[in-house]
Specification:
about 675 residues, 3 domains, about 40% helix, Rossmann fold, about 15% strand, single chain, alpha+beta, 29 helices
Length: about 675
Amino acid sequence: MKIKEKEIKYNQLRKNKNYQQTIDEANIWTATFFWTFEGTALGEIPRYTTIEQLRDNIIDPELDNLMKKVDKIVENNQFFHWHIEFPEVFSSEIAGFDCVLTNPPWDVMEFIEMEFFLGLSEEIINAKNKSDRIKIIKMLKEKNLEIFEKYKYEWRKIKKIGHFIKTSNFYKLSSKGKLNTYALFTERCWNLISPNGYLGIITPTGLIMNYYMQDLFKTIVKKKAILNLFDFENRNKLFNIDSRFRFCLLSLGGSNISQDIIPMTFYTLDPREIQEPLSIIFENKKDLKEKIKRLPDNHILIPLEKNDFELFNPNTLTSPSFRVKKAAGLLRNIYHQSPILIKRELENGDIISNPWKISIKTLFHMSDDSGLFFTEKMLKNLKAQPLNNNCLGGIWKDTSNNKYYPLYEGRMIWHYNHRFNSMSFAKKGKKRKAKSIVTSLNNYKNPWFFAKPNYWIKEENLNERVPDNYNNNWFLGFREITGATNERTFISTILPRTAIGHKIIILISELNVEDKCVLLSNINSIVFDYIVRQKISGTSISLYMLEQLPIFPPEKYNKNLKSLIVSRVIELVYTAHDLDGFAKDLKIQNEPYEWDSERRERIQADLDGIYAHLYKINKQDLEYILDTFKTLKRKEFDKFNEYRTRRLILEAYDKFSKQKELFE
């Protein structure tokens, strides 16, 4: 039969009375999720009796009008009913497809105002911030009703699709948080295969690592449905997207197909790299576990099992990622040495243990709170001046005695260093772009030099955001934005009690200042950094990931070890007078410590050596860990003609190997 004849035959089948009745019923049910209500009145809507009226062939003008509305909704939203379009697949014993192969869109299903108004309103596109943009959009109702109505229609359309996804029960595992299309496709396609079927899908690696994907990934792990997974980093530009973006080839089996071991590779750059792992998988199906066990430590094929996800991420069962087989074994050993920061019930998320009594907070959102920001120019217009006359950073005060506190951003901090960068603006077209100004050695040596931000916040607004029961004049915070291939990944320090943007996460603990110094040293250690690199999937440290990192509890430290760590942390942190509050809590009466770069390197290496011993890392494994920091290694060879951090840490490790009583 020719294509044209098939088309004619197909259209004839679609006119069949039984077919039409079936599709009308499916459309009515689906349309209810997209129905537009006017005001508070329900108006004319499909009810359970509507389908009965259709089946009984009742002639009713109101029913005809209702079906016209249904048809319009169907046309606007392009409904597709799998069980009707493929009756031979879903109405038989097969109960699904034998195989589904797909590369779904990798979008977030949300209404993006900037994209909608592109080419429609330059004023909205060029708005200074989100709050200004919302005001201009509201004014469109009076200025340009046609564009406003288009905006309202598109906004409602996305909301209705989201309502269907979240409430129709087709996407129970993938519809939490932002609606990522790749997760929705994965769940839907997995449910479309038969019990003996297979699904192959190309999806962002976030599917196996992100918080809002945990219900979906947790379920496929528990059902042992993952047959293999091959993760890629886009550095060779396989797709025309960010080179740091990661995606994976994921194979899942139907309900009758399960596999205890999950063969996985991570960070591959070229599809040819997985040819050998594929051969190993398909040639050793019966004894795959034993075959992989015999592979060398540097092999990229990594075997993971359900209990690995329970060990590495017990709160979510999401996946870590490893470059080689050795890394997985190393992380298993590390996780056996320490509990995680916060342990939760797997099913309901209730906290089981929180030894540091940690709560996690952000103060100011850089976009949503932009209406509260003051620039240097705005402060000068208020006749405000810095309290420290020799430095534009720090607190300013106006003629009415109102104080304005500097707003710290992520790039302003480094390990044990709250003065890493000052901020400025660079012109880029019509918009200003923030730029960093690296702190000079002379400024580091000046304890009255404070990092200069781009914005300040009024004291009263700061006080509104700080918890009432928070009594310290300083914060412990870390950078949220980072990457697994950066020079370093987890970056934290002590900051003054000041305004802090949401890209610095604040850790609030009920414990004393000495304990917090110990916590800071743990999360700044290079072994901890290595652990984070195995867990991070994108360019930010998520809070759920932080909770599941192995961090030693306060009782791990004996008196001598704690004293040794705290003294070193104090010297690294207290280098400027804007942390006098931190020094006061520690009962330190001397001036800030002088900045000595070489001494700081040795002190930090001491702390790194201590934590290598605490995590029970042998010297060979420590050398391996240090060699994985390739960007750090390259930069230090360019600067010092040696990998100095490696040498100093190994020397410190050897030194503390002779002081075993510290770790007992």
